[in-house]
Amino acid sequence: LASFVLDKAGLEPSFVDGGIIPDINTNAQHRAGKYFIAELDESDGTIVKYSPDILVINNLEEDHIDHYKNGMPDLVKTFNQEIAQSKKVLINNDNAGTALLSGNFITFGLKDADYTAKNVDSETIEIFHNGCLLTTIKTQLAGIHNVYNTLAVVAALNEAGVELKKIAQYFYPFTGMGRRFQKVCEFNGITVYDDYAHHPTEIKAALQAAASKFGKENVVAVFQPHRFTRLQSLWKEFLTAFENAGRVIVTDVYAASEDSIEGINGENFAAELSCEYVSGNMQDVARKLMPSLKKGDVVIGLGAGTITNLGKELCKLETILK
Description:
The protein is built from ten helices and 15 strands. The strands form three sheets. The chain has a six-stranded mixed sheet, with helices on one face. Strands 10-11-15-12-13-14 form a six-stranded mixed sheet, sandwiched between helices. The protein has a three-stranded mixed sheet with strand order 2-1-3, covered by helices on one side. It has helices at residues 2-8, 72-84, 144-159, 164-167, 200-214, 228-233, 235-239, 266-273, 282-289, 310-321; strands at residues 14-21, 26-29, 36-38, 54-57, 88-92, 106-109, 115-118, 124-129, 132-138, 182-187, 190-195, 219-223, 247-250, 276-277, 298-302.
């Protein structure tokens, strides 16, 4: 979002992001402007190789246990090291995980923070700094997680000295990142989306946004668990992540080079969640899913693996069946 806004405002930012940015059609570029934006990945600990002028931490939750063997304590240690070598640190004051971090912070959140937001349920969000109205941002992004994203970007750009009045208009054209609630196709009144969400909190956020936009009863969530270790360690959290879906289908686990773990699989997870289980590759999943879809359904593929191909396979089937 920050990369998109600065680019559209003509500030020629350089950036490296985790997904394809709409309209710019790339995840990275080197330009002449003075701003460089990077989406850093904590999964393997290499985040500590960077010393940013402004570090933004939107949330902190247990994940990547293949690297952080002791869970949250190891994550917190890594983030505290990164915080110590950053000039300014902005954190989400509403996230429980960030409360475990140490340092001098600039906070953002919906209450009791340096940067706050009001009218969060509308397209027009009012953003305040130290209690005073800073700017008004119009956005078409759905979901409370996108309110936090917008708030974080405004706070970071303000701290960087960007004139907000020159960039505020460029928030609304942003439609989201590739593989972030990305519309794949539409046929017979059925809409198919692809979302990279593979952590319980990400899934909750994606489904909450979908339910608020389309109605829970129309949301069909197709979940491909990503890594056996993640499904095992966050099993209970995953069980509560699908409350905003009217229908849930679970596929086989995408191993991502991991060995299987006895009892940790899509079939057993679906049984405990009391939802449908569909085995096989994405062609198989699409073939088994297609006959049960009806007009008004909003299908959302969730996961970081081959689930991204589900929408394409459904669209192929629709063309063949015409």
